[in-house]
Design a protein that fits this description.
Elements (H helix, E strand, L loop, with lengths): L10 H6 L5 E8 L4 H15 L2 E9 L7 E10 L15 E4 L19 E5 L13 E5 L1 H8 L3 H13 L5 H14 L4 H14 L1 E2 L4 H17 L31 E5 L9 H5 L5 E8 L2 E9 L9 H5 L5 E5 L18 H8 L8 H9 L5
Parallel strand pairs: 1-4, 4-5, 5-6
Antiparallel strand pairs: 1-3, 2-3, 6-7, 8-11, 9-10
Helix pairs in contact: 2-4, 2-5, 3-4, 3-6, 4-6, 5-6
The structure holds iron/sulfur cluster (2 copies).
The site of one iron/sulfur cluster (SF4) has 13 residues, from helix 8.
Length: 369
């Protein structure tokens, strides 16, 4: 492991202290490129770090905005990797957007010996009580400034935390992969990678709240042991990949549609184009006629694809830099759509809602439900 430093959270330290594998979990959302990042990290181990490695991702409908997890394992090159299950207790957790931390399942399995890298959002506070040793960087801002993608920026940060002495091996794997796939974007991506490596740094944390979170995450792990043998009969999973309940704001990549209402002619093209029911029309008056009028957008469900901007015939929707508009005008939460945090409160992350037939059975047994 000549390319790797012996730092406390790094790969070398963990592998020489008796751990079989150094394990990384990427937590992301469709569209941010975590899958490709995981693949490159996996290949990096075998091609350039003289290790054995494996990587795979888990995702749902391959739709922008759905949850994506990536798993990478490294071990000594003489060892065969026989474990092909998701990484449950990562050595390094990589969170591609700060808003994902609202969901406790994202940092499930992390303890005080886990290093956590978070892509920070300007102006947003971190939730209290995150476990692990926290590191952060303004990944989205770096990606926008370098015209690269957030995945290469996060990969640079990962290489630093893994203990790589320089970013050079990461550059090589980017050249191998992105150089073939997107040759015109290679230089920008290399810049993003370098800045990720250089700019990731430790975040302050509150020791007391870390302790509290450790207890909480143990609780979640207990809840998570429900499987096909232990889950209640007829239980249903309240975590559908559906965008109706998903907060899609983490999949935006720095840009949002801005609504200029005085230009709007209420043609409805944005409504029929938007894949995520963001626009809200209600009965109203336009030029003296009663009609459905565009009231605004629910940014909770907007993934920032900007198709609405392309389609609007009168430039009533324009592209804006999200960080310049923290208080979004015409942000109109749609009450008919579920919001994930409220939805979770009762069931808890990874919990189950018991179905009516199960409840009936419990009542018949005289048990409490
Ligand atoms: S496409 Fe433009 S003009 Fe038409 S309703 Fe939407 S915002 Fe208004
Ligand atoms: S950018 Fe426009 S089309 Fe895309 S999700 Fe947001 S509102 Fe809908």
């Amino acid at each position: 492991m000549e390319h790797i430093k012996d730092n406390r959270w790094g790969l070398q330290k963990k592998l020489t202290s008796g751990k079989e594998y150094y394990e990384i979990r990427l937590e992301s959302i469709g569209g941010l490129g975590a899958n490709l990042c995981g693949k490159m990290l996996g290949e990096l181990g075998i091609k350039y770090l003289d290790l054995n490695s494996s990587s795979f991702s888990s995702y749902g409908s391959e739709k922008t905005g759905t949850p994506v997890k990536g798993f990478i394992r490294y071990c000594d090159k003489a060892k065969e990797i026989r474990v092909h299950s998701p990484v449950v207790e990562p050595d390094l957790l990589v969170v591609f957007h700060q808003a994902l931390l609202k969901d406790g399942i994202v940092w499930k399995g992390c303890g005080n010996e886990t290093a956590v890298i978070v892509a920070l959002e300007p102006g947003q506070a971190l939730p209290e009580g995150l476990p692990g040793q926290l590191y952060g960087l303004k990944a989205q801002q770096i990606a926008m400034e370098t015209h690269s993608r957030i995945n290469v920026v996060m990969m640079g940060a990962v290489l630093k935390l893994m203990g790589l002495k320089s970013v050079e091996k990461g550059e090589q794997i980017c050249r191998d992969t992105l150089g073939k796939k997107y040759p015109e974007a290679l230089e920008n991506n290399l810049q993003g990678l370098r800045r990720g490596y250089e700019e990731v740094g430790p975040l302050e944390q509150n020791v007391n709240s870390v302790k509290a979170a450790g207890e909480e995450s143990k609780g979640q792990a207990r809840e998570g042991i429900w499987g096909y043998e232990t889950a209640p009969m007829g239980g249903i999973n309240p975590r559908p990949g559906s965008t109706v309940v998903s907060d899609l704001s983490p999949s935006r990549q720095g840009y949002i549609p801005l609504f200029i209402q005085e230009r709007c002619i209420n043609c409805g093209l944005c409504l029929s184009t938007c894949p995520d029911m963001v626009f809200q029309f209600a009965k109203g008056e336009y030029k003296g006629r009663e009609m459905m009028v565009n009231q605004g957008l629910d940014y909770y469900h907007c993934k920032g694809c900007l198709r609405c901007v392309d389609v609007c015939p009168v430039n009533a929707l324009v592209r804006g830099i999200e960080s310049e508009h923290p208080n979004k005008q015409y942000f109109l939460p749609n009450q008919e759509l579920l919001r994930m945090p409220a939805y979770y409160e009762k069931a808890g992350p990874d919990g189950y809602i018991t179905s009516e037939s199960y409840l009936t059975e419990k009542r018949m047994e005289g048990g409490e439900v």
